[in-house]
Amino acid sequence: MADDGFTLLLAGHTHGGQVVLPGVGAVAKARFPILQGLGRQDNTSIFVSRGIGTVYVPIRINCPPEVAIITLRATPRAQPS
Asked: Smallest Cα–Cα separation from 62: which of 50, 75, 77?
């Protein structure tokens, strides 16, 4: 990602792992390292929503559905001297 020059990536959803077991965590974490929320890789900020649905089995355990509302604000750029 860093080679692509992106500083922000807004991703689809991974269902937050869908099944999150106490003491173990999300079952899908090995396949999806950033299951939900804000993460960072090199110079890129990554946001992944938990979403509202399910996949394979129609259950969610310890992983409530989420609809994310994100406000983006530009930062002032430095003026060239």
From this structure: 50
Tell whether pTM > 0.70.
Answer: no
Per-position b or e across 7-36, b if 16+ CB within 10 A of its CB: eeeeeebbbbbbbbeeeeebebeeeeebbb
Could you tell me the CA-to-CA distances from 49 to 1, 5, 12, 30, 62 in Å, in that order?
Answer: 19, 22, 7, 17, 15
Asked whether the beta carbons of 54 and 43 are under 8 A apart, the reply is: no
* Per-residue pLDDT reduced to its tens digit, 2-46: 567 788 888 877 677 788 889 888 877 777 776 688 888 888 888
